[in-house]
Amino acid sequence: MIKPFEFYFDFISPYSFLAHKEIIKIEKRDSIKIKYKPILLGGLHNLHGIKAPAFIPAKARHMIRDCKLIAEKNNISFKFNSYFPIKSLNLMRGVLVAEEDNFKSYYIDSIYNAIWQDGLNLNDENIFQKILKNLNINPKTFLLRLASSSIKDSLKKKTSEAYEKGIFGAPSFVINNKIFWGQDRIEFVLSEAKK
Predict the structure, then answer these.
(1) How are the residues of the chain apportioned to helix, strand and coil, as percentages rounded to the nearest 5?
(2) How many helices (H) and strands (E) does the chain have?
C-alpha cells in the first residue's frame, strides 16, 4: 500500500504526459487517487527566472528523442506534437473548471491524449471546442468560465504556491514534504510513498 502523492503538471510538458500515463497505471494497481496539482509552467519558470529546455535548441532536440525513448520503454503511445509549444493557459484553467464539475480526470486524460497522442493543434480554439463537444461539454459556457476572475486567480495562486514550495518544473511530485522533479523520479516517489 502506498500513500497518495501530489503531481504538479502542465499540459505543455511532454514529460508530464508520460508521468500521467504512469500514474494511471499506479492508481489502478494500488487503488489510490493521486492528487493532481495544475500549474502554469511558463509562469513558474518566470518566477524562478528559468528558460524552458524547449527554447534551447540542443535541449529541445534531446527532449524529443528522450520522450520517444521513455514512451517506448513504458509502452505508451506518444507523438511529439508538431505544433509545440502549445499555449496551455486556457487548457490549465480548464482543469479547474473540470474539477468544480467533477470530471477532472476525464478532462485531463482527453487533453493530454489530444496533444501527445493525436498531435492536435490545441493552439486553435476551434479544435479545443471540438474536444469539449466530444466530452459533452458546452464549449461556450466552458470558455466563459475559463475567463472568470475566480478561475484565473486560482491558477495563479496554485502556481505561486508551487513556487513557494520550491517546485521549479513539471512534472514534480511531493510526498512526505519531499520534492521529486522529473518523470524519471516516479520510482523514488513510490519508495517514499511506502514509508
Answers:
(1) 60, 10, 30
(2) 9, 4
With a threshold of 0.85, does the pTM exceed it?
A: yes
Q: ∠ CA(34), CA(3), CA(73), 5° rounding? A: 60
Residue environment code for 64-88, b if the CB has 16+ CB neighbours within 10 A, otherwise e = eebbeebbeeeebebeebeebebeb
Q: Which domains does the chain have, with CATH numbers?
A: 6-193 (3.40.30.10)
pLDDT tens, the chain, 195 aa long: 789 999 999 999 999 999 999 999 999 999 999 999 999 999 999 999 988 877 788 888 889 999 999 999 999 999 999 999 999 999 999 999 999 988 889 999 999 999 999 999 999 999 999 999 999 999 999 999 999 999 999 999 999 999 999 999 999 999 999 999 999 999 999 999 998
